[in-house]
Write a structure and sequence with these properties.
The chain has 259 residues and is an alpha/beta fold. The protein has seven helices and twelve strands. The model has no long low-confidence stretch (mean pLDDT 95).
Length: 259
C-alpha cells in the first residue's frame, strides 16, 4: 500500500530513527543566531516532533513551531508545553505576527517542488520576520549531485528496534531530471509483518538559485555554505569557518530581511 510518510505519522519512531541526543541541530541554530546578532523570538517551520523547540525553550527562546502534520504537532505539544505549536502549510501560513528568527531545517524547504512554491515560502518568511530578522535554512545541496552518485548507487537497508518492535526499510533514491527532484522510495517492513511503501521527493535546489530567490523576496544573504553544519561530516562549532566550495551534500542559508 502507498503511504505518505510513515515516520511523520509516528513521531516517537521518528525520533528513534533520527536521534539527536546532543541537540546538534538546536545548538547549531543558537550559534548562528549569536554569530549574526539575531533575537530570541523564533518560528520553526517544519518543527516536527518539537525536539529542537524544547532545547530552545530551555535556553531562553520564545518558540512557535509550525508543521503540516497533525501527528507531529500533537506530539510536540505534549513534549514541549512551553512552546506554541500550529498546524500549517509552509507555503501559505499566516500567523499575523512577526519574529526575530525563522528556521527551516532538515531539508523541509525542499518540499517546495517548484519555483512558485519556493517563492511563496520565502515570501511568507519575509512577511513573518521583523525588519533585520534572520532566516536560517538547511537542506540538501543540488550541486552535490553534479557528477556524484554516492547517494544514488544501490539500495540502503536499515533496521531499528524500538519499544520492543522491529522496523526495517529498504530505500532507493533517483533523480527526476525533468522535475529537478530527488525522488525516494522507502519500503517498510513493520511489526506484524505489515508492509508500507513510502514515496516522496525533494527539490534539487542549487546555491545560485537559492541566492537569487532569497534576494528576489527581500533578503540579504549573509552566508551560504556547504559545511560545517548539523548534518555534515565536519562537526559544527560556534567559531567554524564556513566553506563556500558548495561541493558537500548540505546547503545552509543565513539571510536577513532587508525591507
Amino acid at each position: 500500500m502507498a503511504h505518505t510518510n510513515f515516520l511523520t505519522d509516528n513521531p516517537a519512531v521518528y525520533e528513534a530513527w533520527f536521534p539527536d541526543p546532543e541537540h546538534v541541530a538546536a545548538r547549531f541554530t543558537d550559534d548562528v543566531v549569536r554569530r549574526f546578532d539575531g533575537g530570541k523570538d523564533l518560528l520553526d517551520v517544519g518543527c516536527g516532533t518539537g525536539r529542537d523547540a524544547r532545547w530552545w525553550c530551555e535556553h531562553g527562546y520564545q518558540v512557535t513551531g509550525l508543521d503540516s502534520s497533525l501527528a507531529m504537532i500533537s506530539h510536540a505539544t505534549e513534549q514541549c508545553q512551553e512552546a506554541e505549536f500550529v498546524v500549517g502549510d509552509m507555503r501559505s501560513f499566516d500567523l499575523r505576527r512577526e519574529f526575530d528568527v525563522i528556521t527551516c531545517l532538515d531539508s523541509a524547504l525542499l518540499y517546495c517542488h517548484d519555483n512558485a512554491d519556493l517563492e511563496r515560502f520565502l515570501t511568507r518568511c519575509h512577511d513573518h520576520l521583523r525588519p533585520g530578522g534572520l532566516l536560517i535554512a538547511e537542506a540538501r545541496n543540488g550541486a552535490f549531485f553534479l557528477g556524484n552518485t554516492e547517494l544514488l548507487d544501490g539500495i540502503a537497508e536499515r533496521t531499528l528496534t524500538y519499544d520492543g518492535q522491529q522496523y526495517s526499510s529498504r530505500t532507493r533514491l533517483w533523480i527526476d531530471h525533468a522535475g529537478q527532484l530527488l525522488r525516494r522510495e522507502r519500503r517498510w517492513r513493520l511489526p506484524d509483518d505489515d508492509e508500507l511503501v513510502q514515496r516522496s521527493a525533494w527539490r534539487l535546489l542549487f546555491p545560485q538559485e537559492l541566492r537569487y530567490f532569497a534576494a528576489h523576496t527581500g533578503f540579504e544573504v549573509l552566508a551560504l555554505f556547504d559545511e560545517p553544519g548539523p548534518r555534515t561530516d565536519t562537526p559544527w562549532t560556534a567559531d567554524a569557518e564556513l566553506s563556500e566550495r558548495m561541493s558537500g551534500d548540505r546547503l545552509h542559508l543565513i539571510a536577513r530581511r532587508i525591507d
